[in-house]
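User: Hi! I have a protein structure encoded as tokens and I'd like to know what sequence might fold into it. I'm fairly new to this, so please keep things simple.
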């Protein structure tokens, strides 16, 4: 499947899948982020019906920073085998109940599975093999016993599970003021990955990560540790990632490894599923901390 023959709607998905499939050969953590973020960028635009100005700027940012790098080069032409996409879910479940590097094995697996299903002709054996190797690359991280009182709703209960994730992330924002918002941001992305897997019908894969997610909630509730380094907070702003002005204001080199796309994608998906106006209002007052 040639990248050049893809429609513009599929282009970012295919670029992201190339990145996810090749990341294990490079810096699996940072480059995996870039691939996953490219998929998330497409979903952010489409699912939130961003206007042309916003979508064009997002695509431009990816083109400026990543699209021409070796990570995103096309894969050789090959027959697609979409029935093999399930191997990614198997690789995820092999991680068991272990918390692996902030849950990125689940985050990246969900985005890869979703993108392959949207572009099944991209599901070639080489790409699927690469994604499976990426998912298996993640190592244990702060793998403590979860608090027995932390018991998220079933991930198949999209509204209840989304509310749980949003509330935990909301509380984490205050807890980590002055220390960066990585914990709150990844609460959104990790939790949303499991909700989305279940919504796609992959309930078993989602629930296989329940204990790991409970561990992440436990770690996040502990707040900054004694060795935590101060990080300047974002300045208050009314701009949000569903507005063209937000993206127009971002400089060309302000994408980092991709959280600028992944956080808002997960945030808006969770808000949509939660259908909780009061929680949405509470979040909007402090969302600038993450975005």
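Assistant: Happy to help. Inverse folding works backwards from shape to sequence: for each of the 291 positions I chose a residue that suits the local structure. Here it is:
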């Amino acid at each position: 499947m040639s990248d050049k023959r893809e429609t513009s709607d599929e282009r970012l998905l295919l670029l992201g899948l190339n990145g996810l499939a090749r990341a294990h050969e490079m810096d699996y953590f940072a480059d995996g982020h870039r691939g996953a973020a490219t998929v998330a960028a497409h979903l952010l635009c489409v699912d939130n019906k961003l206007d042309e100005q916003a979508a064009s700027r997002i695509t431009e940012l990816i083109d400026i920073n990543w699209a021409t790098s070796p990570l995103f080069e096309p894969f050789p032409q090959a027959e697609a085998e979409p029935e093999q996409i399930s191997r990614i879910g198997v690789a995820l479940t092999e991680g068991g109940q272990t918390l692996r590097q902030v849950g990125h094995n689940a985050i990246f697996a969900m985005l890869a599975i979703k993108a392959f299903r949207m572009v099944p002709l991209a599901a070639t054996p080489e790409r699927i093999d690469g994604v499976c190797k990426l998912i298996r690359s993640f190592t244990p991280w702060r793998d403590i016993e979860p608090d027995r009182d932390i018991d998220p709703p079933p991930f198949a209960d999209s509204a209840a599970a989304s509310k749980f994730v949003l509330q935990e992330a909301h509380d984490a924002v205050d807890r980590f003021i002055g220390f960066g918002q990585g914990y709150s941001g990844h609460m959104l992305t990790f939790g949303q990955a499991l909700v989305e897997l279940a919504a796609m019908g992959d309930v078993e894969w989602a629930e296989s990560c329940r204990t790991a997610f409970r561990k992440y909630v436990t770690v996040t509730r502990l707040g900054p540790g004694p060795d935590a380094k101060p990080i300047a907070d974002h300045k208050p702003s009314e701009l949000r990632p569903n507005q063209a002005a937000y993206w127009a204001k971002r400089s060309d080199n302000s994408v980092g490894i991709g959280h600028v796309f992944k956080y808002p994608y997960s945030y808006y998906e969770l808000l949509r599923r939660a259908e909780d106006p009061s929680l949405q209002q509470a979040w909007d007052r402090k969302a600038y901390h993450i975005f």
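A useful reference point when you look it over: The radius of gyration is 18 Å. Feel free to ask if any position seems puzzling.
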